[in-house]
Amino acid sequence: MLHIKIKKHIISTHKRPNRTVHLHHHEKTHVNQENLSVDLAELQNAAASASSLLKVLANQDRLLLLCQMTQGEYCVSDLEQLTGVRQPTLSQQLTVLRDESMVTTRREGKQIFYSIASKEALAVLQVLYEQFCKPGKRKAKKVNGTV
């Protein structure tokens, strides 16, 4: 069994009246290499999955479509009207979302309805809503020096 030594440099600060004293400590930690390999492999897989999700979300049209679908299931014509994404871009982006298993479809007669299938995408969209879309969080974008 191999062990790896890792040195951590810890700085603690103690405040005294009119001066600050910095104390430096060195601490050695032993890490089992076998456990590190398993954790690293899991971390790499998680990073690959997160990266794939973020690549899909990085397209403005796909993000608009998914944001709209957080409100429920929509047919293609409703998505076009609500998001402003026009054909053939709409069909192309819905195909990407389907291929990446982000959305699921349901057919009713001639209409196809789309809804979010990815719980991970839904969780990220919730955070994005809180940070960028929630009332009071929206920031006016300046265009040519005016708001």
Automatic annotation (TrEMBL):
<dbReference type="InterPro" id="IPR051011">
    <property type="entry name" value="Metal_resp_trans_reg"/>
</dbReference>
<dbReference type="InterPro" id="IPR011991">
    <property type="entry name" value="ArsR-like_HTH"/>
</dbReference>
<keyword id="KW-0238">DNA-binding</keyword>
<dbReference type="InterPro" id="IPR036390">
    <property type="entry name" value="WH_DNA-bd_sf"/>
</dbReference>
<dbReference type="InterPro" id="IPR001845">
    <property type="entry name" value="HTH_ArsR_DNA-bd_dom"/>
</dbReference>
<keyword id="KW-0804">Transcription</keyword>
<dbReference type="InterPro" id="IPR036388">
    <property type="entry name" value="WH-like_DNA-bd_sf"/>
</dbReference>
<keyword id="KW-0805">Transcription regulation</keyword>
<feature type="domain" description="HTH arsR-type">
    <location>
        <begin position="43"/>
        <end position="136"/>
    </location>
</feature>
<dbReference type="Pfam" id="PF01022">
    <property type="entry name" value="HTH_5"/>
</dbReference>
<protein>
    <submittedName>
        <fullName>Transcriptional regulator, ArsR family</fullName>
    </submittedName>
</protein>
